[in-house]
Design goal:
Four copies of one chain form a homotetramer.
Chain A (H helix, E strand, L loop, with lengths): L1 E5 L2 E8 L4 E5 L13 H4 L4 E5 L18 H13 L5 E6 L1 H12 L4 E7 L7 H15 L3 H12 L2 H6 L1 H15 L2 H13 L16 E6 L7 H10 L3 E6 L6 H4 L1 H13 L8
Parallel strand pairs in A: 3-4, 3-5, 5-6, 6-7, 7-8
Antiparallel strand pairs in A: 1-2, 2-4
Helix pairs in contact in A: 2-3, 4-5, 4-8, 5-7
Chain lengths: 273, 273, 273, 273
């Protein structure tokens, strides 16, 4: 468990393995802990850096503040400076994928490869209104209410139905967390921080080869928006996971690991004639 | 505005046009009024019957009762007897599509054609948990909360984003309704009534030609479940609407009308060699 | 069997039923006869007009000539004049859908509704090269060769495999035709006539409500091209048939009939708030 | 350039890099040379083995013989024995993917991981008839005819249209080869060898984790058949490449390389609660 300080705030991160640095960016409800099952495979090939964004995991709580995702973008920059890293590969999912894309657009020289799962280039007003509902649900302080409002739509119906026991255990783990007012306030701030997200004008600044991974049953990140994202990327590649939803890494952990390792390690092959 | 009585309860319906009877079955939050824009086109060709299920529109409120969708199935039966109709074509969407399918499986001789939009043959446990969240949201009596929890996911992100003004007007119409405790209690009972829905064992009893209409951005009725439904139907046909969501009839009203009229009027054409 | 003459050429057509005129435009290998199974259902509602284009069915053979699809567009114009029809609804599939779209773009006032199946707004160079292979295959005068080159790709693998007997009977019917040098020469001219087809600059001239029907296993009309077509149409609607291929009308005859009848009869419904 | 002999026949192969052996299996028209652009990236991580099947590249020509794909399955077995390899990872595309699947089903202990692109578990009668057309086309000895019959359908219309110059150069390379009677006879035998391919009864014998990669515009390997394949695999994972066709490795070489490297290197991650 490592920490560094920036602007008087403690930031938590983890570093595993050696060699080429790969930063993993959390989805909104996640923390560095969420990635534990993936570290053994990823750290065989990379120095795996996990970072808790502001208001996530063990990092500083921004009680009473309002902010945008740009605060997390700048956090990545400070984090890399703290580690004396000039360049990094970034993997992100959902909220983390958006921060990763925004970082790569703002600091293109600092990113050599990018893999984003279930991510868009802007917050659709549709999603914004869904987020508003999540916040209202959190304000009830009823953990099960928050669970039922947020979790089912994060998973594909295919996974949810075929892993009911898994989901029930997950619910048991999440209920106390989702009943914690401090956690719910963090979620509210994080949700609000994403409302204004829109990097469409800057997409072509991203120079790193970028893999966009969509899940066919993702009911939070509109696939049409992901298609539009890929089309704007200078070096974008696109892949779809059938039968998976927004929580693609939990639903298809082996595929998740494979896609990350493969895209980061492969040379950018072309076939010329 | 017409009424009939059954078991001491008043049931509301509307009848427009002449000729072959076609019954329209409401989605869960809908009422006979929701179909007004469709009546002029449909009633050129059919006697259009609109029915408020129990706890919908102007029909009896079942305060304090618990029931399953079978109560609505039986209501259709009584309604047809009231009108002295031996056979009817049925069109249903979502909750109404499920009641229609259940009716056609229970009383196959009474249905000559069936068109269901955004409907499944059972309630996926995933959807059940989403419904539980809706109920919790309703219990807050906060109309906007109920709106944000239920409405965005009913519309495709494509429609929602491209019809923001339409959605805002819709929100203005719905907020007072969604703030009405009686309405929210009705919604709770209706939502619960669908939890045990499962007609998979009876699907092959349906003998009427049946058109299943799926919307590609329907985030409430899993498309895999709709595909499974079609495969079990003896005379099922399947069609998909791209760029539409669960509220397909509002998002694509012209297509909705076309599909209904066409499937009900066409002879069951085959191409033999 | 009816004929009329234009520029010294005999043109064959059929007229069934009364009332509103609906013109059916053949795919490239089809003729008025191909539609016989559809006439009983369609002619209940419309005056169904079937027309053999130049080099099709019983119409004039343009031996030794080269031409573009515009010759067929003009043929429709003359045909409507012959029948004293100012306006018509048009239904077309593949080659016939393209002629229909081109006609509606060139003479927008003469078309009140349009339904096109498996049609694009231009001939993709990919399809052009496939067509060149068809022509080479025809030049061998080996009917089975022409059959194997053209027919399997016209049907979805799903239909082909599940209707093997049907396909074998179809093959028996087609082999003598596909061994006929005159027929093969007609096919060559018709195929070449489509090579330069490109109405993309004129799509917005089409003012008729237009239903674009795509089949998900259509391996000749790229679905991306059909999506692009719909997006350019001022009043376009889009629907997809799962499990069907390029010969959608043979594979899903009931759906074909339903879609045509419904889209032509429905009022252009909107849902305003 | 390496060779070994089996049953009096010379077999050609290439070996690049060190470490864990990965065998690449050619599609029907391919040879070891087709993979040259991929070797630099793959051989950084594996000992890359490329093998010309019978009637491919520099391997023995089976003039006058008829055989099934099982002859290639046995060839892999002999090849591994020749190299003293007990276990291998296999990557195959199309014909090569089918041989790989058949090998893994027949000799499950010899395969530790499997990646198949654009492959099915049996030859659909639809594809069989398409193959018959290819053979007839080859018998004309007209290279351009063979090109037009086989090549466009191998590429997605999206790629073909956006890489017209690439395709023209490819055509120039292929025309002399496709005009060579010996090559065309080889293709005929290889095509016929796949007609009886059907390992559906044996799929569950495959114990290696298997990645099935489908391309959404693959017009030769029905996607429904690939879905059925995945569902039968004990440890199957599925991924789809949008905008690519049957020649996925040429159309998306960077993705191809990434998927192979990632799936072979990743630990089989699970996420347990």
């Amino acid at each position: 468990m490592s920490f560094f300080e920036t602007q008087g705030k403690q930031i938590h991160y983890e570093s595993d393995g050696k060699g080429r640095p790969v930063l993993i960016c959390n989805g909104i409800m996640m923390s560095t802990k969420s990635w534990i099952p993936f570290v053994p495979s990823l750290s065989e090939h990379f120095r795996v850096l996990r970072l808790d964004f502001y208001d996530q995991g063990e990092s500083a709580i921004l009680e009473g503040e309002t902010y945008t995702q740009d605060i997390q973008v700048e956090l990545i920059k400070v984090f890399l400076e703290h580690l004396n890293l000039e360049k990094v590969s970034i993997v992100g999912i959902s909220y983390g994928g958006e921060v990763a894309l925004a970082f790569a657009a703002k600091y293109p020289q600092k990113v050599d490869r990018l893999v984003v799962f279930n991510s868009c280039s802007y917050t659709n007003p549709w999603l914004k209104d869904i987020g508003r509902g999540w916040i209202k649900s959190g304000k009830t302080r009823d953990g099960q209410h928050y669970y039922q409002t947020t979790i089912p739509v994060i998973y594909s119906p295919t996974f949810y139905e075929s892993h009911l026991d898994w989901m029930k255990r997950r619910e048991a783990v999440l209920l106390p967390i989702f009943s914690n007012p401090e956690f719910l306030d963090r979620m509210e701030r994080l949700t609000l921080s994403a409302e204004s997200y829109d990097i469409r004008p800057d997409l072509q600044k991203i120079i790193a080869p970028t893999l966009v991974v969509s899940a066919e049953e993702d009911y939070l990140t509109p696939i049409a928006n992901q298609e539009a994202l890929v089309k704007e990327l200078v070096r974008g590649e696109w892949i779809k996971i059938p039968g998976a939803g927004h929580a693609s890494m939990y639903e298809k952990p082996y595929l998740f690991t494979s896609l990350v390792i493969g895209f980061l390690l492969a040379k950018e092959t072309t076939y010329t004639i």
